[in-house]
Amino acid sequence: MADKFYPQDHGGNLYSSGEGPVLADFSASINPMGQPEGLLKALEEHWGEVSHYPDRQSSLLVEAIKHRYEVKSGEILCGNGSAELIDLTLRALAPSRVIICPPDFGLYSRSIPASVETLNIPRKEAEGFAVDTGAILKNLKKGDLVLFSNPGNPSGSALPEEEVMLIARAAREAGATLVVDEAFADFCPSFSVLDYAGEERALVVLRSLTKFYAIPGIRTGFLKADGALVDKIASLQLPWSVGVPAQVVGAACLKDDNWAKRSRDYLGRSKEKLLAGLASIPGFTALPSEANYILIRLDAPAPSADELYARLRRSGTLIRHCGSFGLGDRYVRIAVRTVGENADLVRHLQKMFGLLSGSA
User: Fold this and answer.
1) Is residue 271 predicted with pLDDT exceeding 70?
2) Are residues 89 and 196 in the same domain?
3) Cα 343 to chain center, whole Å?
4) Torsions phi, psi of 24, nearest 5?
5) How far apart are CA 283 and CA 350, in angstroms?
6) Which of 14, 62, 90, 159 has the smallest count of CB within 10 Å of its CB?
7) Residue 9 located in a structural domain
8) DSSP class of residue 9?
9) Per-residue model confidence as pLDDT tens digits over 105-158
10) CA dihedral of residues 28, 62, 240, 29 (deg, nearest 10)
11) Residue 24, helix vs strand vs coil
12) How many domains does the chain have?
């Protein structure tokens, strides 16, 4: 029997035809405050460089990363977004087995070579889809590569720093490697283990600039690891994979020292109001999340994820159906947008379910 088809394998697909325009996108968890100021100016200043091949070492971007995150030379590899870095890491480290923790970002399982064994250690649904640290430690063996997102996608559940490092140390002792995808860690930096990558030889940390700085159309990210691991991964990277615009924009984003705090402060307030509004919808249960998105379990009298997705999509609102994460027809993910956009979504849902006077 074929697997059920779900309408999305990733958020933010505004280019699909036949469903009408997207007027409000809650499917992609991108910072609704937009980009830091000065990006266009930075591009203009460096525009003449597009007549030449990009700097293969991404020096401008690496220097900005070193300044922002206080990292050492030789521990950083920039890439064409996290997707490239995931692929490079899996190929370079050539594990005998990959441990993943579903539900999680679907690209992980799709990137594992068919010849490599995969062990699924499911997250704990009763605990908001937290990573099952105990099960990972119990199953670790030589040659393994453990890969999971933190905070988790789509759950937003975040494993504390001390637990992540417990897995990292156990991986080293077992002759394995831990790869932590921190694509959304800028929204909750206290859970990040970026500082330990490089120092802990068995730890690789992936970071994306596209979500927090609202530049998904400009593919840029980086990884941090022990210098020998970085060299091994870099040896497989195609030359010039990070173009001039990506290097310039990424560096300019990281140089704005106030952007991070302003964004987190605003999104914290916006998220609280959105959670309060969603609590008014019968059958909607919002799971705890450290990220800029909320995973919602749908119970009666709420409709199924199929129905909710379809009804909202017909009106121009896009949410994330979580069937492709392996969560069937019971879960959807909603991004935290601006206070006004969130309020509009809540009113739309309230009207849809007859909770406002005069609504059907």
Assistant:
1) yes
2) yes
3) 24
4) -145, 120
5) 12
6) 14
7) no
8) S
9) 999 999 999 999 999 999 999 999 999 999 999 999 999 999 999 999 999 999
10) 0
11) strand
12) 2
235 and 340 assigned to the same domain: no
Indicate the residue type of 166.
Answer: L
- At position 276, the amino acid (one-letter code) is A
Contact 292, 33 (CB under 8 A): no
Spatial distance between the Cα atoms of 149 and 183, rounded to a whole number of angstroms: 7
- Enter the tokens of residue 358: 């005069």
pLDDT over 90, % of the chain? 82
- Domain end position, chosen among 193, 219, 254: 254
Do 276 and 203 reside in the same domain of the chain?
no
The pLDDT tens digits for 216-247 are 889 899 999 999 999 999 999 999 999 999 99
Q: Please check whether residue 161 is in contact with residue 169, taking contact to mean a CB–CB distance below 8 angstroms.
A: no
Distance CA 289, CA 276 (A): 14
In one-letter notation, the amino acid at residue 346 is V
Say if residue 247 is in the same domain as residue 280: no
If asked whether residues 190 and 336 sit together in one domain, one would say no
Q: What does 182-251 look like in DSSP terms, one character per residue?
A: -TTGGGSGGG--GGGBTTBTTEEEEEESTTTTT-TTS--EEEE--HHHHHHHHTTSPTT-S-HHHHHHHH
The order of strands in the sheet holding 221-224 is 76-79, 221-224, 203-208, 177-181, 144-149, 97-100, 117-120
Strand partners, 273: none
- CA distance linking residue 133 with residue 131, whole number of Å: 6
User: Is residue 84 domain-shared with residue 174, that is, in the same domain?
Assistant: yes
pLDDT of residue 358 exceeding 70, the answer is: no
How is residue 164 written in tokens? 């992540």
Q: Give the domain range for residue 121.
A: 39-254
Count other Cβ atoms within 10 Å, centred on residue 125: 14
Question: And the tokens for 224?
Answer: 């941090």
pLDDT at 14 > cutoff 60: no
- Tell me the pTM: 0.91
| In-domain check, residue 360 | no
Give the total residue count for the chain: 360
Cis peptide bond prior to 151, omega within 30° of 0: yes
